[in-house]
Amino acid sequence: MSSHDVVARVRKIIATRRVGHTGTLDPFATGVLVVMVGKATRLMQFLGVAEKEYEAVIRLGYATDTGDFTGKRVSENEFHVRTQSIRQEDIEVAIQSLRGEMDQTPPMYSAKKVKGQKLYELARRGEEIERATVRITISAFESIGRDGRLLKENEDGTRDLAVRVVCSAGTYVRTLAEDFGKRLGLGAHLAELRRTRAGAFKIEDANTLDQLTELAESGLLAQEFISPDATLAHLPAVDLSLDDVRRVMTGLNLPCESTGWLTGQAVRLRDESGELMAVGIYDEALKLVHPQVVLVSA
To answer: Where in the sequence numbering do the catalytic residues fall?
Structure first.
């Protein structure tokens, strides 16, 4: 199921056309997909979901043309022998070398567009083009032992390493898996990928599509929505007077002085009941907030 498929299902479940998501998840992957509904779709730019967290399984033994298990093998050099010689020290050194800031080349099998064309469309035609590198940050990259073992041995001679990754937006964990294998002198690809967090949105707070369907049928769906104000809780807030509310609703600038905000700071603008009316952008020089996205009309 693609991220687009998920949005289509949500539209049908909640009977609303205005639905969007904040970051594509590969069809083979599982986990958190942040979905915005109705007027909240206008708040995506302020969400702060740049940092992602994943649990993944890297399969050591051979690489694939897609970087994950859905692709075709592109290397297989006595991996059943070579994987047996991997030491824990080698794994930790390889992991350590892939933490921090670095440049990463997007894979050909990705939805990234170059000159208006998706890379995977070119890849499916057997074409490969030069791609500009992207600066990324790997904040955390660590192995996860399972059943008292660091590596799981598979019947075909490959070995699986479970890992946890925290990274910036635009990071391809598939490419990270391939780079990890190269550090060990082995082909490698991603066997499993699960996004456990996108910004402040965690998997333990998420609903499955089946759960959404049950909630909708029971008339309890509304209680599962996160309010626009709570969604942007990471932003500073200004509580407006009735006169201020009128100004904001018509898009007029709001005089506002702050000693801690810099120009460009996004600010929640709320009415007296705490409902989010708009999101504004602070101008330090003029000491005012300009309403950027107004959620209510005059």
So the answer is: 26
